[in-house]
Amino acid sequence: MAALNIQQGATSHSAYDLRDPNSQIEESHTLAVLVDNEAGVLARVIGLFSGRGYNIDSLTVAEVDHSGHRSRITIVTRGTPSVIEQIKAQLGRIVPVHEVHDLTVEGRSVERELGLFKVRGQGEKRVEALRIAEIFRANVVDLTLESFVFEMTGTSEKLDAFADLMRPLGLIDLARTGVAALSRGA
């Protein structure tokens, strides 16, 4: 039986680690895409991501121009700078897409997300959940003797932090809208 000798300080690479060691670091980007509000457009945009193996961290869609029948798709995705550029270029080539903006690189932007958190609580845990909700400025939108539903708007990181604190107190369920974002200024 042959023994494998690995010297201290040497690195071994797995055959399953296919990442390029010289590749750029992945970054999170928020993309705002203005599209025609018609059947199949969202499926085409999502198909671009899934067909190329890109992940979507957050997705929101709503009509923003009723008379022009236009919707805004806000997508949060991750990738190297070259992958993000490729995504933007490919989105721009989809026919019903009118504009693609990378809010992460175009300047300062405002990003918010709405979250609903259902928390079971009685006794001290109930009091603690209400205290934390007050600190985070979360509103109670439903209340029973056994649980609360809190509503909170803020950054994704703020919602993550609130959920992390509510888990040991009895977080039962949560729903999040995904990021809505606009560039700041004129």
TrEMBL record:
<dbReference type="InterPro" id="IPR054480">
    <property type="entry name" value="AHAS_small-like_ACT"/>
</dbReference>
<dbReference type="InterPro" id="IPR004789">
    <property type="entry name" value="Acetalactate_synth_ssu"/>
</dbReference>
<keyword id="KW-0100">Branched-chain amino acid biosynthesis</keyword>
<dbReference type="InterPro" id="IPR027271">
    <property type="entry name" value="Acetolactate_synth/TF_NikR_C"/>
</dbReference>
<dbReference type="GO" id="GO:0003984">
    <property type="term" value="F:acetolactate synthase activity"/>
</dbReference>
<comment type="function">
    <text>Catalyzes the conversion of 2 pyruvate molecules into acetolactate in the first common step of the biosynthetic pathway of the branched-amino acids such as leucine, isoleucine, and valine.</text>
</comment>
<comment type="similarity">
    <text>Belongs to the acetolactate synthase small subunit family.</text>
</comment>
<dbReference type="Pfam" id="PF22629">
    <property type="entry name" value="ACT_AHAS_ss"/>
</dbReference>
<dbReference type="InterPro" id="IPR045865">
    <property type="entry name" value="ACT-like_dom_sf"/>
</dbReference>
<comment type="pathway">
    <text>Amino-acid biosynthesis; L-isoleucine biosynthesis; L-isoleucine from 2-oxobutanoate: step 1/4.</text>
</comment>
<dbReference type="Pfam" id="PF10369">
    <property type="entry name" value="ALS_ss_C"/>
</dbReference>
<dbReference type="InterPro" id="IPR019455">
    <property type="entry name" value="Acetolactate_synth_ssu_C"/>
</dbReference>
<keyword id="KW-0808">Transferase</keyword>
<keyword id="KW-0028">Amino-acid biosynthesis</keyword>
<dbReference type="InterPro" id="IPR002912">
    <property type="entry name" value="ACT_dom"/>
</dbReference>
<feature type="domain" description="ACT">
    <location>
        <begin position="30"/>
        <end position="105"/>
    </location>
</feature>
<dbReference type="InterPro" id="IPR039557">
    <property type="entry name" value="AHAS_ACT"/>
</dbReference>
<comment type="pathway">
    <text>Amino-acid biosynthesis; L-valine biosynthesis; L-valine from pyruvate: step 1/4.</text>
</comment>
<protein>
    <recommendedName>
        <fullName>Acetolactate synthase small subunit</fullName>
        <ecNumber>2.2.1.6</ecNumber>
    </recommendedName>
</protein>
<comment type="subunit">
    <text>Dimer of large and small chains.</text>
</comment>
